[in-house]
Amino acid sequence: MQITSFKQYEEDYKKSVENPEQFWGEVAQNFQWRKPWFKVLSWNFNEPNIKWFEGAKLNITENCLDRHLATNGDKPAIVWEPNNPEEESVTYTYKMLHERVCRFANVLKRNGAKKGDRICIYMPMVPELAIAVLACARIGAVHSVIFGGFSAKSIADRINDSQCKVVITADGSYRGNKQIPLKDVIDDALIGCPTVAKCIVLTHIRTPVSMLKGRDVWWEDEVKHVNDICEAEEMDAEDMLFILYTSGSTGKPKGVVHTCGGYMVYAGYTFSNVFNYQPGEVYFCTADIGWITGHSYIVYGPLSQGATSVLFEGIPTYPSPSRFWDIVEKHKVNTLYTAPTAIRSLMSFGEEPLNGKDLSSIRVLGSVGEPINEEAWHWFDEKIGHGKAPIVDTWWQTETGGIMISPIATVTPTKPSFATLPLPGIQPILVDENGNEIEGNGVMGNLCIKFPWPGMLRTTYGDHERCKQTYFSTYENLYFTGDGCLRDEDGYYRITGRVDDVLNVSGHRIGTAEVENAINMHAGVVESAVVGYPHDVKGQGIYAFVIYPEMHGEAELSKKDILQTVTRVIGAIAKPDKILFVSGLPKTRSGKIMRRILRKIAEGDTTNLGDTSTLLDPGVVEEIIAAAKKL
Ligand code: 7RM
To answer: How does strand 49-54 pair with strand 39-44?
Structure first.
């Protein structure tokens, strides 16, 4: 099923558009099903109602584990690299991983979890995180992984939204030289989570934690009480596999729902093709499993293809900015898949961290999460790939489940800062504000997809109407991505960034409304408006305009308080980079904040603010500009 020439890409693409059911039916033959489908696809984008491989039965863990045992049981599945390079790395072969997953699946059952139950996972980047995810899938429970940087309140909101019954966590996690007390955070969250009956705690950093009698149990104790035999639950192709919360333009994150069959086929197919993965190669994706990239391209995609996936606990700059290159050298990494923000950050340390590092194993490079600027692209190409490793700039979203627009390594000619061409099965179109298709090349517009693909979201948990409104109502009969896009003279796609009120900070999606809500929770704040601005390393930084009328004492202290509030409400990832106290915000007569103006001010470009005559109080703009200059 691997595409090996550009001609084959063109043929496959053509076939996938002319006969999608035949195309995906054939791709799906490369997976293991308990029972075949009677219909490859039924769909409409109005409700929306999308079904792939209807009638088919499977368990994704049989595809990620069991089916490799006979021939590849002793092959490394996961290579774990700890935060501290002095500690030993750990390798799990497919046989070992299978054994651990089955054992932990039995622990879940022993703690009352069953098919269809939702389970929240809040863990460090350790092998047990992958084991927990796969164990849920093994018994048909729905996992909802929450990134370790989210606050107790964010966790509680997510747990309650999907009524999780079980939580899996650890005492704490390491992040560079910091320790994060995960169990303490969970304890705070669970005060407001009546549905949670059990909390399973892994020992990792050996920090003292409090264990609530009847609710909390230790991972290490539990696994002693069960054996390692656990038959996989038979799942319908359209049964829920997982929920992953993601930010949108409202204050409340949505639980994006992915299902078993289509997601498996799409994650596996795209992994194999985009990275041109070859048997025996070592593949390293630096994302966190708390984000979709980790779900699809650390766990499910690679394991479904029998690959060796490196799982790294730490951060790129600890103990030094050589860390990635040391890992590449140590584990002879063939594919490195990372984010532009990491590349830019490492770039800023110059070439010294690269001196003496053997990067000759690298064959393919990948980028994901945000637009990659040309400078970072060339640095990645020259310094890391030595001009010999194709870069796959992969555009996709939590909602798409897998990579959508991307070069196919060794096949598609690349072009700096372009995600290039749609993968087979993906039909992108550009539309104008009115939803009219913009045809031809050398054009820009809003990026939509006009035909279903197996990895697409099926709903947003507990609120199907919201799924319809957010993705399928802006333009009739189209899935709207929220991204702006250029299609150049060659028909190549370049994603230019979000066109809605969603920020992309270091590749993490953050809704401006969410940050505003958090800031507004501070007692002294009356109102706020948040916009993004260009940031050298993060891609986008967060700029907050805040009305705080009765400031007693120093402004700097109030800023610190606000940052702490945001950290408590959402998590440190949403902390504004700049806070500007203002006496008013630019609003229209109907009370709408004119973010366009604030964005210009945040960018430091106030030469052309456009029409400000519709503002309620045009004078406020001058005042904000003056204050911003002093910040
Ligand atoms: C995989 C992931 C999705 C948003 C998406 C874009 C942006 C992602 C690229 C990109 C330009 C890329 N999922 N984005 N990849 N922009 N080039 N290669 O990141 O749900 O967290 O974010 O990220 O705006 O809509 S996500």
So the answer is: antiparallel
Residue closest to 82 by CA, chosen among 339, 331, 274: 331
Q: CATH assignment of 502-630, given 3.40.50.2300, 3.30.300.30, 3.40.50.2000, 3.30.565.10?
A: 3.30.300.30
Average pLDDT score over residue span 509-514: 95
Q: Residue 469: CB partners within 8 Å, gap ≥ 6?
A: none
Q: Is the CB of 397 under 6 A from ligand 1?
A: yes
* Ligand 1 nearest-atom number relative to CA 507: 19
CB 247 near ligand 1, within 6 Å: no
| CA 507 – ligand 1 centroid, Å | 7
Q: Establish how many alpha carbons lie within 13 A of residue 193's alpha carbon, considering only the half-sphere containing its beta carbon.
A: 29
What's the rounded mean pLDDT across residues 484-513? 96
H-run or E-run covering 543: strand 539-547
Whether the pLDDT of residue 609 is over 80: the answer is yes
Question: Percentage of the chain with pLDDT > 90?
Answer: 95
pLDDT at 611: 80
- What pLDDT was estimated at residue 614? 82
C-beta of residue 9 within 8 angstroms of C-beta of residue 44: no
pLDDT digits (tens, 9 = 90+) for 348-375: 999 999 999 999 999 999 999 999 999 9
Residue 495 Cβ < 6 Å to ligand 1: yes
Q: Tokens 């539990």 sit at which residue?
A: 222
Structure tokens at 546: 């805040």
